[in-house]
From TrEMBL:
Name under which the protein is recorded: KIF-binding protein
InterPro entries: Hybrid_Histidine_Kinase, TPR-like_helical_dom_sf
Length: 313
């Protein structure tokens, strides 16, 4: 009976720690159990669930803000095993994360590396379309929009978000990525709203805020700082400056408390943008500097370099 139980352990772990429990508790708490599920799968020869466990480990590590250099090392290590054990589908599911990690790490001063990563993206998208893999295609657009937003390329982020919507219409259900998808959708809408007073944003952002409030009732630590940042951006947009300033600071503190360094960096950069819009260059400079340090700590050297080059004063 003990051997029989071990046979199903990897399957149980990937379902629980790669799915249900990611909504309920802090994402990082699921990483070690997923690695254990991988090891148990390898031990009994269940390669499929071993690779599913480690694929979830990598995705959740990235989403929860693990250092990008570590995530990249894990990808390099485990994708070799995925290829060796002919786990093509699982490997393909992981590749959008690989592309996002490299995009954030690469400096724009390294054109050869960027060209190589663009080639990977083109190949991945082609294979997703050829294989009619809607999950992979949706993930490509999802994480590419996230990266575009982080690099302040808001028109590109919006176009990628729209392409994801088109793919999701063909899917039985969309992938929420534990609140991440709605979070970045909201940020993209609000970025466009800040830029143009004619952009209609209230309905879409209202729907997203309702989703995020529901997600926070399920698991606070993954969502609290995200919702606070969205609230800060809304208050900034409608001119409630004092409340917005406080919300930005609360979002930064909550992201730090919950261990989401990448979203702490994003909240800090948005706070800097807010101060700049309101002619407070002293605080804007302070917060841009803090954001840059946080991006570097996360391992996003490409983003940090880009921020330094594009600080608007």
């Amino acid at each position: 009976e003990k051997l029989k139980a071990q046979e199903y352990l990897s399957q149980v772990y990937v379902c629980n720690y790669g799915g249900i429990l990611c909504w309920i508790r802090n994402l990082k708490l699921n990483l070690e159990p997923l690695l254990f599920g991988y090891k148990m799968g390898m031990k009994i020869g269940d390669m499929q669930h071993a690779m599913l466990s480690v694929s979830s480990y990598i995705k959740i590590g990235f989403i929860s803000g693990l250092n990008l250099r570590k995530v990249e090392r894990d990808i390099q290590k485990f994708e070799k095993e995925m290829i060796e054990y002919n786990q093509t589908t699982v490997h393909r599911w992981m590749l959008p994360i690989k592309r996002a990690v490299l995009d954030l790490m690469l400096s724009t001063d390294d054109p050869l590396a960027i060209d190589e990563n663009s080639a990977i993206q083109h190949y991945l998208h082609q294979k997703a379309v050829e294989g009619n893999s809607l999950v992979v295609e949706s993930s490509i657009y999802n994480f590419s929009a996230m990266v575009a937003y982080i690099y302040n390329k808001y028109d590109l982020a919006a176009a990628l978000m729209q392409k994801r919507y088109e793919v999701e219409k063909k899917m039985s259900r969309p992938t929420h990525w534990y609140g991440l998808t709605a979070f970045y959708d909201g940020l993209i809408f609000l970025a466009l709203a800040h830029r143009s007073s004619e952009f209609e944003w209230t309905s879409d952002v209202g729907d997203i805020m309702s989703k995020m409030e529901t997600f926070m009732q399920i698991g606070r630590s993954n969502i609290e700082h995200k919702l606070l940042l969205l609230e800060a951006e809304v208050k900034s947009k409608i001119g409630q400056k004092d409340i917005a300033s406080q919300k930005y600071k609360l979002a930064i503190a909550a992201a730090e408390k919950n261990g989401f360094i990448h979203e702490q960096a994003i909240a800090t950069e948005r706070a800097a943008d807010f101060f700049l819009r309101n002619n407070d260059k002293s605080n804007a400079s302070l917060y841009y500097g803090r954001a840059n340090s946080l991006y570097l700590k996360w391992g996003a050297k490409g983003k940090a370099d880009d921020l330094c080059k594009n600080i608007p004063f």
